[in-house]
Amino acid sequence: MLRSYSGMVNALGEYLRARRALIRPADAGLRVIGVRRTPGLRREEVATLAGISADYYLRLEQGRDRNPSPQVLAALARVFQLDATATAHLLSLTGGGPRPVARRSRREQVPAGLRQLLDVVGLPAFVENRHFDVLAVNTLAAALSPAIRVGENRMRSVFLDPAERDLHVDWDALLGGMVASFRASIGTESADPRVTELVGELSLASEEFRHLWARHDVKAPTGGEVRMNHPVVGPLTLRREKLQSDGLILALYHAEPGSPTAAALSLLASLSVPASLLES
């Protein structure tokens, strides 16, 4: 079962098929006549819209041609309505030849300056690597969600921990955004043992993950609104920011000054037992 996620199959073809299935004919300006059994666009329709032959597009999906020109890729990105991040991902899938299996790297170390920032920032904050493994977390972040802890993986927590589902209000959006950000974070290195292990585990344990992974959505990690129902301080409307630092990701939550959520965060901080910063 894990072979389809290992990166050893036709990654370009998988991506093209997934995106083709998600574009409705009406969104592509096509008139639908009769009953369609094919979800999304037909191969012939994609080829016509991209200005290439149907036989050539079929070869791309089947992996018989893995080096299309930049012009062809740009046309396909337009047909599939890809944004800049997803287009860059599409281009990265044609790097040529199979990629060597990445070795498991040594455990990342959080720089001293970044650890100090977590201590003094006064906001819920933590550091994760590109696999979304938590490497360091401050006391307020742990109080916000006990699942944010060193050694835990945020993907695993969100999909498999029932407490996370109870905490987050916009659950479906959270899941979709996290999977798309994970794909952007790992890029084309899906043969990395850590990626294979995590994707395999989640695929076996979560139907929601299998569905979202098969979509091949790609979205750069960005900030956004997060709504929570905290068991201690009640409803929260937060902003989450994700900042890159030395190959790591600094995630932090903040509230609008003077808002009820800001007051609730202050209360949560006063209730939290001070503790030394946990790190890798």
What's the helix-strand series? HHHHHHEEHHHHHHEEEHE
- Give the averaged pLDDT, no decimals: 85
The CATH level-2 architecture of the largest domain is identified as 2-Layer Sandwich
Q: Please list the strands of the largest sheet in the order they lie side by side.
A: 3-4-5-1-2-6
CATH class of the largest domain: Alpha Beta
Could you say how many structural domains there are in total? Answer: 2
Count of DSSP helices? 13
Strand coverage percent = 5-15%
Derived from helix and strand composition plus strand pairing, the structural class reads alpha+beta
Say what the CATH topology of the largest domain is. Beta-Lactamase
Task: Profile the largest sheet.
Answer: 6 strands, antiparallel
In total, the number of strands is 6
How much helix is in the residues? 40-55%
Radius of gyration: 21 Å
Gross morphology: elongated
Spans of at least 5 consecutive residues with low confidence: 1-8, 96-105, 275-280
Cα separation of the termini: 32 Å
